[in-house]
Amino acid sequence: MDSTEAWEALSSMKSLHRSLRITPVKRSQHFFFNMIEFRFFKDSEQGVALPFGNSGFLTRLVAVPYVLAAEVIFFRARRYFVKLGESVVGVVVFREEPDNLLIGSLGVAKEYRRLGVATFVLRCAEQSAARLGKEWLELSVLKRNVPARRLYAEFGFRWRMTRKWSLILRKKVALV
User: Is the pTM of this model over 0.90?
Assistant: First the structure.
């Protein structure tokens, strides 16, 4: 990519960021959206980011319990849609903990990946954590999801702990 292309890409990203907004949604809206639009997570990196891959039948077999379990885990969390106009281009779940703001779930629609949507969400999360007086911004990422791990590392997240399938990453929040 030459400097002109890089400038155009940065310019279009800034334009996209000005058009994005994060809106709160009810648990029921989030639940039904995830049941219908599970592709936000299923299609991560051609299906290799999730242990069950792209098999349609297997995805449906695993998706329902996965979404149900996530709803239980994030019972007290706040759920949001990332919107571009009226279209939902991403979903995110935040949970407040004593010292940190936990990003419990973050997904971007396949056609909007690599356009800065996740970066926009991470910046908003960091600003929220600072306003709430949290010391850390924390998240979990599947070990196999290399593109997400790369994004989080570029954004300043560092390793905190390893689990069987995932890594727990955190970033120090600059208080305002």
Answer: no
